[in-house]
Every structure is written in structure tokens, then in C-alpha cells.
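Hallway conversation turned thread

IA: we were arguing at lunch whether anyone had actually written out DYW domain-containing protein end to end. Turns out nobody had. So, for the record, here is the sequence (183 residues) and right after it the C-alpha cells. Reply here if something looks off.
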Amino acid sequence: MGLVDEGRSYVDAMTRYYNVEPNIKNYVRMVDLLARSGLLKEAEKLIDSMPIAPDVVTWGALLGACRKHGNSEMGERVGRKLLELQPDHDGFHPPGTDEVLLDIDKEKEESTLFRHSEKLAITYGLISMAPSPPIRIIKNLKTYSDCHAAAKLLTKAFNREIVVRDQHQFHHFKDGSFSCVEF
């Protein structure tokens, strides 16, 4: 039994054997499981059929998988829904013009790119801290590839260790290299 089938069996057992209706967190996990497995259409159908209104986390799980699996058409549709639900959420604006799924004008694009707090935090650390201690940053959003690349370059250029903790993992940068998974 694969992980998708196992996940389906857990959700089925909740309702069938334990008379427990899935909550939003259960649906998000199932959407994420389907989407990460490449079953994007099935994940979207699940969202559309949920008895609970999908939130930004639900749609965000699908958007991340659209990017991973290269489905820009669905990604654009999901991105629009996310922006309707929460237009000011920075996590829905991946940096780098090649990573933006929605068509937006240049001014809006630049505004979006400058929102990534770890770049600002690293810069602040470089200008305000003594040169020897590592720069440590904690944030609640994902670290995107352009920020990841910038941190690698800055560690080499300034001979500084940088540690970024995002919502998923620790990213350790030192001497132009890193100890996390390459984006």
C-alpha cells in the first residue's frame, strides 16, 4: 500500500469506524499528500468537494505542488484564489521573475520581490553586528530560491556564517555552501 492509499484509508476509517468528520487540518494533509504525489487534479477536486471552506493553507499546499510538478495553468488558477483569500500574504509571491506564476506589472513585481524578510535581516546583521558571530534568522515563511542563493553568496563574500530557520527546516550557509537541500 502506497502512502496515498494509506492516507485515504486513515480518512476513511475516521468517518466509517470512528464517526469523526475530518477537520480542516485533516483535509490540508490529504490535499498535500495527493498534490505532492503528483495527483494535482485529484487534490483540487478534493478541495472543491470539501464540506469546509478551504483556507489559504489548503490552497497553498496545492500551489506548492503545482510549482514542483510544473503545472503552471493550475498554479495560476490556484494563485488567483489565494490572492483573493489573502492578498497581502507574502508567501504567495515567490521571488524571481521566472518563479512568478501570475501576470503582474513590473512595479508590482518589484514590490513583491522586496518583501522577503531574510534578505533584509541578513543585510541588517552584516551592517550592525560584529564580524565574527553567525547571523541567525528565524522566520515563519518558506525560504525561496533567490534568498537561498543570496545567502550562499553573502557567506562567501563576507566570510560569515548564516543560519535561517524557516517554517520547514534550518538552512546553514557557510563559505558559499549550505547544509540544507538544494532548491
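OS: looked through it. The chain has two domains: 3-113, 117-178.
IA: good, adding that to the notes. Strands lie at 135-138, 162-165, 170-174, 177-178.
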